[in-house]
Amino acid sequence: MNIYSIAYKNLLRKKTRTALTAGGIMLSTWVLATLLGFNRGYQQGLNRDIDNMGFQVLLTAKGCPYEAATLMLKGGTGLRYMAADVVKTVYKNAEVEKVTPMLMQGVFDPNKGENGAVAAYLGVDADTFPAMKPYLEFKQGGWFRDNAAYEAVLGYEAAELETREVGDKMLIPGVDKEIKVVGVLKRSGTQDDGTIFLPIAAVQKIFAKQGKLTGLGIKVKKDADLTAFENKLYDLPDVQVVSMAQVKTTIMNLVNSARVIVMGIAGIALIIAMAGVINTILMSVMERYAEIGILKSMGAMPLDVFKMIWLETAILCALGGAAGIGLAFTTARLAEAGVRYFLPYAPNGALIALDGGITAFSFALILGGGLLSGVYPAWRAARVRPLEAIRIEGEQ
Amino acid sequence: MENNIVISAADLRKVYRRGAEEVRAVDGVSFEAAAGEMVAITGPSGSGKTTLLNLIGCLDNPTSGTLSVGGRAVFGGGRELSERELTLVRRELFGYVFQKFYLIPTLTVEENILLPGAFYAAPGAKEAHEVMKLLGIERRYRHLPGELSGGEMQRVAIARALINSPRVLLADEPTGSLDSRRAEEIKDILRGLTRQGITVVMVTHNLELASSADRRLEIRDGKIHGV
Predict the structure, then answer these.
(1) Contact across the interface for A299 and B60, Cβ inside 8 Å
(2) What is the distance in angstroms between the Cα of A273 and the nearest Cα belonging to chain B?
(3) What pLDDT does residue A372 have?
(4) In terms of C-beta density within 10 A (0-12 exposed, 13-18 middle, 19 or more buried), how is residue B64 classed?
(5) Most buried residue among A43, A132, A280, B16 by CB atoms closer than 10 A?
(6) How many C-beta neighbours within 10 Å does residue A394 have?
(7) How far off is chain B from A330, nearest CA to CA, in Å?
């Protein structure tokens, strides 16, 4: 017979109450772990999305830079145009390693979805774009023959959605131009999965946008001074400079601000769980007041009683915490789907990144909080005097 | 007889205040009990029986007086024992039985008996089975208290009190929750324990149980009025 076994079996006396309290702890742990996982997942996803763009600076026509950046992250465009000769101007800078011009066009497709939707086409330079995205691999086919060819490369999801494969023909709605699918990309986990790539000159011709671009991606040399280079670009007329590092910092600042709210919610969840633990354990102590006195009359020291009650708290919190962690893992994809539905922009990849660190931290926080809440009931129990217990027995 | 004395109380007093009133719950009680003797403390409600039992059982410090148990001077010299000191004395010398048994409902009979072992080095399962055999509950060792009769529960409580081989068994109304047949069984058990040299001191309203004791201390207003 040991004190652990007594503590565990004491919890079984009121199974419903124990289950409800453990359930409360489980939900608090779930909220905590999921929120922390979301925070990390969002950060990782954003980093990945921006890094996978392949360039550090984006030039767009004048407009809101963050709107432009967000649209680019989502595979869209601000649909403002700048002159294509900006490519030559930018190339003159010694800091530039590569540039890739882009022209995004959207057309309403009445046959897309139930009520029609906008179909987006990204015109890219066959000579420079693939070098910016070395991680893109082909499931079928390859890149376009040249920049004027009426050919398309489909991202993995775009191909699935359009049910196309290499050799198929696609009709661009509105302009009635037929293009041939020459490549289908493997899944990359980026916004490229949902993109339809066309040669840039073809897009300019099809949509009558010759000499125009919607974006220019710039990859800077490794040892270049990015800030100084960006300052030079600010002098260019009618374009705006979007530094992806700044975008990342700004979005992360917003995410970090949201983290305060998120941690506040997690804190409230923790406080609710702690209140539940105090209530349950204190009630249990009060119900066993006489019995605790009898244990002391039998030779239990105050510290023994304190340990016994504290162990009950620890077991309760450990069980609830472990169940909460399990729940967080099993419902991560479901929670992610819910979060994606409500967020205006969510990066690709796992949005709730649960790992050993988050799991251990959440569990430790719940256990620590629970043990802290168990101190008062355990202290009350340790102070029970056997004589009082016997007196209570006499009065009952 | 002198060397056989297990409990020796002299001029024990317990005085406490209830508002402006001074209550002499135990007022100069002196008595001795030998090894294997059964002593019944009787008297009307509020006469100080339980307070006296608590003093003898080291559940509380007396206001004054001396008490020796098993040749060991426990109280005396005006020094109050700390909670820890009282607990150590209780572990070593006493076993307690109460009217309401206070068995832990989620522990089996065997686990309830071994309960003191969770807090200090008490005997183990072998001794528990010997005690259960002595009390005739050996076949119930895996049962939960809820599956036992009142008499069986009190036997388990007695077994729990005996597991650390006490010199003195203190019982507060041990038959108070039992019918007459079960009460008779418990009386026989207590009697049997005295034959093994254990001193039994009990508070009881049960006249039959009191009359079976070797000695009866009649308490009124905190004083012994008859022996």
Answers:
(1) no
(2) 26
(3) 93
(4) middle
(5) A280
(6) 14
(7) 33
Reported pTM: 0.73
CB contact under 8 A, B99 and A387: no
Report how far apart, in Å, the C-alpha atoms of B128 and of each of A1, A276, A379, B105, B125 are.
Answer: 11, 38, 31, 18, 5
| Mean pLDDT of chain A, nearest integer | 86
Q: Which of B26, B45, B59, B101 to mutate to test the interface with A (most CBs of A within 10 A)?
A: B59
**pLDDT tens, B98-140?**
888 889 999 999 999 998 888 887 677 888 888 898 888 888 8
Indicate if the pLDDT at residue A19 is higher than 90: yes
Instruction: Return the pLDDT at B210.
Output: 92
Q: Residue A248: pLDDT above 90?
A: no
Between CA B167 and CA B163 the distance in angstroms is 11
Q: What whole-number distance in Å separates Cα of residue B74 and Cα of residue B155?
A: 29
Q: Which residue has the higher pLDDT, B209 or A116?
A: B209
* For chain A, domain boundaries: 3-48+251-395, 63-237
Mean pLDDT of B143-155: 91
Sign of CA dihedral B155, B161, B164, B165: negative
Q: How is A61-92 classified by DSSP, letter by letter? A: ESS-HHHHHHHHHTT------EETTHHHHHHT
**pLDDT at residue number A118:** 74
Dig out the tokens for A160 from the structure.
Answer: 């699935």
Question: Under a CB-based contact definition with an 8 Å cutoff, are residues A56 and A219 in contact?
Answer: yes
Of A6, A9, A290, the CB nearest to B102: A290
Average pLDDT over residues A161-166: 88
pLDDT digits (tens, 9 = 90+) for A29-54: 999 999 889 888 888 888 877 777 77
A vs B, Cβ pairs < 8 A, gives 80
Which DSSP symbol is given to A164?
-
Task: State how far the Cα of A243 lies from the Cα of A59, in Å rounded to an integer.
Answer: 9
CA distance A326 to chain B (A): 28
Could you tell me the two tokens for A181? 């699918």
Q: In Å, how far is A322's CA from the nearest CA of chain B? A: 24
Report the run of H or E that residue A154 belongs to, with start and end: strand A151-154
Q: Which domains occur in chain B, in start order?
A: 35-62+81-226 (3.40.50.300)
